[in-house]
Structure formats: C-alpha cells, structure tokens
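INTERNAL AUDIT FORM
Audit reference: QA-55
Scope: verify that the stored structure record matches its stored sequence.
Auditor: D.O.
Record contents follow.
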Amino acid sequence: MKNLVLTACVSAVLMAASAAPSFAADACQTYCKATANSCREQCSDPQEQEQCIFECSRSECKANCNRIEEACTQHCPKS
C-alpha cells in the first residue's frame, strides 16, 4: 500500500514541478530526499519487512533507496 502512495505522490510532484521550474525544482528535490529517507527507514524497520519496497537485505534495500532518490532528482526540473 505504501508503494502505491509513494508512486502516486512522486507522479503528482513531477507533474507540478513542470509548472514553475525554479520553485518546483527545490520542492521536487526536497520530496525526493524525503521519499528516499522514508524508504531507508522502512528498510531498517523489522516490522515493515512484509511491506518493504524491495525484498532484500538492508544494505541492498538502502542502495535501492539511493537509486530511487537519484532517479527522482534527475526528473526534477532544472532551475
């Protein structure tokens, strides 16, 4: 369920980001960081294992969170 919410939010931020590049770029990058941090928290929470975005070790999960942040940031508008 969290994955669906994250995907919907990322899509909304990226669509809004195209409207006002300078402000949107900062908001988009902030969102990317927050999403990645949420992913990293989920990786380290043993109660969230069944909800984990990636079924893998913590280090692999965190590496995937880093990739999510990088990909998200690359899609942010350039200010």
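Auditor finding: record pair retrieved intact. The mean pLDDT is 75.
Action required: none
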